[in-house]
Specification:
Layout (H helix, E strand, L loop, with lengths): L14 H14 L9 H6 L5 E6 L1 H16 L6 E7 L19 H11 L26 E7 L5 H13 L5 E7 L6 H4 L4 H15 L3
Parallel strand pairs: 1-2, 2-3, 3-4
Protein name: Putative carboxylesterase 13-like protein
GO molecular function: hydrolase activity
InterPro entries: AB_hydrolase_3 (IPR013094), AB_hydrolase_fold (IPR029058), Carboxylest/Gibb_receptor (IPR050466), Lipase_GDXG_put_SER_AS (IPR033140)
Length: 209
Amino acid sequence: VSVDYRRAPEHPLPIAYEDSWTSLKWVASHLNGNGSDEWINRYADFEKVFLAGDSAGANIAHNVCIRVGTEGLHGINVEGIVLVHSFFWGVERIGSETKQSEHLDFVDNLWRFVYPTSLGSDDPLLNPGFDSNLGKLSCKRVLVCVAENDLLKDRGWYYKELLEKIGWGGVVEVIETKGEGHVFHLFNPKCDNAVSLFNQIASFINHSG
């Protein structure tokens, strides 16, 4: 199911989060096989639901999974999430960010642009390290995909460290694509690295417990 959430600046955050949550609840409404979409009624396995996204979509997938853990959603078991080149950030520079001066302010300003009423770059929606509900991430497995030349790469590795540090009970895995930048697979989906990435994601989903 692809979520066509409303986008900033015409629809500033947190609208995209709410649209995505509403969409997941709509999927859950098919639990008894009498929902409005016949394909979901017939084929959906509600015991093995995966949430996935690229960039901002990865951020949303993470936050929706947190919301499942904090609010609950009857009939939906989120088996795992796939976070591809996640749009996470923070005030404190980490990893290779400390060696870069270009584009850092751009990310800060971009967040303020799409979410004018936000608390800033350490908003828990953007910086999981400031989310007191991180341990309630409602899935068993996480696949984090990063790209070597992506400014956001270190945020993916940091996410893994956070989950391990707080003792989250699931399994988190990171795969890094060498020589590529942010969402390269969307610009050139037939290149070898993109095909490899797609195969690894498919393997992660197909080998669920």
